[in-house]
């Protein structure tokens, strides 16, 4: 099981990046005629959140590659109580479900998909599909993916990556929701009252 996980995790995150970030972004860019990555590069607090998020992604990527080169490295940081096949299968299941969930949510966003807040082009408010269950299904899926990563490879480092990544996403979610409220007004406010930020359980 350990050998499988060492290869599964980096392959998973490579596919996650290629499909849900690069692939979707290229497809949307062709439709709208601009790069959907609109994270700012200035000195604002919002730009700083984006920079930290990129940093977490880099650290996560490096940490998934290290076990391939040095298989015994992760053993030093293992949380032994969670180091079992049951938790690992659970984690792998969460990661796979999260990947499918995120891709479906991104496809349902169509031309409204952005990485960051688009201040120059008004995007359509998507309220159908997975957006009937969550106001932020992409971020919800990414959070579940990080939780799954922790259970699959339970170390102190993956724990902190999951916690910090989740905090940064919660900040980004609130920034984006403030923007959507300004952009769509009462329509978004009604939607916000009806659907939960991360998941609505009916």
Topology:
Elements: H1 2-32, H2 45-69, H3 85-109, H4 137-152, H5 156-184, H6 186-194
Helix pairs in contact: 1-2, 1-3, 2-5, 3-4, 4-5, 5-6
Keywords:
202 residues; mainly alpha; Four Helix Bundle (Hemerythrin (Met), subunit A); 0% strand
Report on this model:
With 202 residues, this protein is mostly helical. The protein has one domain (2-194): Four Helix Bundle (Hemerythrin (Met), subunit A) (Up-down Bundle), CATH 1.20.120.1630. Helices cover 67% and strands 0% of the residues. The chain is built from six helices and no strands. It has helices at 2-32, 45-69, 85-109, 137-152, 156-184, 186-194. Helix 2 (45-69) packs antiparallel against helix 5 (156-184) and helix 3 (85-109) packs antiparallel against helix 4. The longest helix has 31 residues, at 2-32. The radius of gyration is 18 Å and the shape is globular. The N and C termini lie far apart (37 Å). The model has no long low-confidence stretch (mean pLDDT 92).
Rg: 18 Å
Shape: globular
* Strand and helix order: HHHHHH
Helical coverage, percent range: 55-70%
Q: Structural class, from secondary structure content? A: mainly alpha
State the end-to-end CA separation. Answer: 37 Å
CATH architecture: Up-down Bundle
Which band does the percent of strand residues land in? under 5%
Spans where pLDDT lies below 50 across 5 or more residues = none
Please tally the helical runs, counting DSSP H or I stretches of 4 or more residues. 6
Query: Which CATH class?
Result: Mainly Alpha
| Number of beta strands | 0
Instruction: Give the averaged pLDDT, no decimals.
Output: 92
Main beta sheet, described? none
Number of domains: 1
The CATH topology, please? Four Helix Bundle (Hemerythrin (Met), subunit A)
